[in-house]
From TrEMBL:
Transmembrane segments: none annotated. Pfam families: Pyr_redox_3. NCBIfam families: MSMEG_0569_nitr (TIGR04046). This is Putative flavoprotein involved in K+ transport. PANTHER family: FLAVIN-BINDING MONOOXYGENASE-LIKE PROTEIN (AFU_ORTHOLOGUE AFUA_4G09220), FLAVIN-CONTAINING MONOOXYGENASE. Keywords: Oxidoreductase. Gene3D superfamilies: FAD/NAD(P)-binding domain (3.50.50.60). One of its GO terms (molecular function) is monooxygenase activity.
């Protein structure tokens, strides 16, 4: 088996498979290296009740649009895995599973070398399709909690019965934190939730799923370059809602009325307990304001298009938090779930294409290093880039660059080598 390929794709999830589909259609020699197996991230980093937040009709991979009988429903994690397996079977990509890439370098001749668990590979071009969620991020403040208190990251959470008896503190209200808090709450566990600055959105508004309105309004195809603060846009938290039980809002205020204990951001852990900032009211108000702003935009679009859509009464807050900081005794807790996101881990990529925050610098996935591309990053080009909705478009764009005339890539190579230190390009 040859270890040199025209293109090597690192990652066999939805992004890597989409890239492979386009290259296969163009007859480009390539291989997909997947460290585990297809759908790994959906198998091993999701809880039992997990569902997609985006509707099934948005699961539109290249050459494999959703054709099921529930387009407005929301796939479970197991259904996502099965869908990806069927996708791979539909065109039989050159996929090698169980191969971990440990180092990527580019030699002076322009050829990439990849060290892997299956030996060394070389390629003329490389697509990194490993996504943005690599290493669980747990803040160092966690070390101050009592030694015997069970702690786990959201990627390790599976079900309420997995946790020891007692109250549960969930830290973080992005999509994972809000949904895990709901999962525990619905199971009858007493939940303490540290609420951050993540925004929320209504699941449905004026007779349609909110995301269907936003899709019709063109939000999924709006390029990141149309925003004045593109770098900050890429770092924004996603709006929390859920696809569970057919999809619904996540209303933290309603949970509070039902007994969930809400706090502001976790600020400090000392011998006196866990202290939370007094910003809960502001965080809840800001989340509601974002949801209301989305509704305003939908109203404006409905009016401009002359669409006949039923009117809907706006949300009224059902609970208001008390002012000031709050403190929680860790002795009340049986477990802590850290829904605090992930760190990117691109240390294996030894090519200088990263900014000071470790983010790959690129233009629609095309880096300054000729032949090196990224696919599947949040806001890689549009809001849909990191979702099933936009991967096909991004993969097609990169396929066009990969198969561009050789003279164009050679000219890019001259520019790259002229601005790169010799030790950087040495093999």
């Amino acid at each position: 088996m040859s270890t040199h390929h025209t293109v090597i794709i690192v990652g066999g999830g939805q992004a890597g498979l989409s890239m492979s589909w386009h290259l296969s259609r163009r007859g480009v020699d390539h291989v997909v290296l997947e460290r585990d197996r297809v759908g790994h991230e959906w198998r091993d980093r999701r809880w039992d009740s997990f569902c997609l937040v985006t509707p099934n009709w948005q699961v539109d991979l290249p050459g494999f649009a959703y054709t099921g009988d529930d387009p407005d429903g929301f796939m479970s994690g197991a259904e996502v895995v099965a869908h990806l397996e069927r996708y791979a079977a539909s065109f039989a990509p050159p996929l090698r599973q169980g191969v971990t890439v440990t180092r990527l370098r580019r030699g002076a001749t322009g050829v990439f070398t990849l060290q892997t668990s299956a030996g060394s590979f070389t390629a003329d071009q490389v697509v990194v399709a490993t996504g943005p969620y690599h290493e669980p991020a747990i803040p160092r403040i966690a070390e101050r909690l009592p030694t015997g208190l069970a702690q786990l990251h959201s990627s390790q959470y599976r079900r309420p019965g997995q946790l020891p008896d007692g109250d549960v503190l969930v830290v973080g209200t992005g999509q994972s934190g809000a949904q895990i808090a709901e999962d525990l709450h619905l199971a009858g566990r007493r939940v303490h939730l540290a609420v951050g600055s993540a925004p929320r959105a209504a699941r449905r508004y004026r007779g349609r799923d909110t995301l269907a309105w936003l899709d019709a309004m063109g939000h999924y195809t709006k390029g990141v370059d149309e925003f004045g603060d593109a770098d900050e846009v890429r770092l924004r938290a996603n709006h929390y809602m859920t696809g569970r039980d057919g999809g619904r809002d996540i209303d933290l205020r309603a949970f509070a009325r039902q007994g969930m204990q809400l706090y502001g951001r976790l600020r400090e852990i000392t011998g006196g307990g866990i202290t939370f900032a007094g910003d809960l009211a502001a965080n809840l108000d800001n989340a509601d304001a974002v949801a209301d702003g989305i509704k305003n935009a939908i109203d404006g679009w409905i009016s401009a298009q002359g669409i006949d859509a039923p009117a809907e009464q706006r949300y009224t807050p059902v609970w208001q938090p008390p002012p000031g900081e709050r403190t929680l005794d860790p002795g009340e807790l049986g477990a802590v779930v850290w829904a605090t996101g992930f760190h990117r881990d691109h240390r294996w990529i030894q090519v200088p294409v990263f900014d000071g925050r470790g983010y790959p610098t690129h233009e629609r996935g095309v880096t300054s290093c000729p032949g090196l591309y990224f696919l599947g990053l949040p806001w890689q080009w549009t809001w849909g880039s990191g979702r099933f909705a936009g991967i096909a478009r991004d993969a097609e764009h990169l396929a066009g660059r990969i198969t561009a005339p050789r003279r164009l890539r050679a000219a890019e190579d001259v520019i790259w080598l002229a601005g790169t230190a010799p030790e950087t390009v040495a093999a």
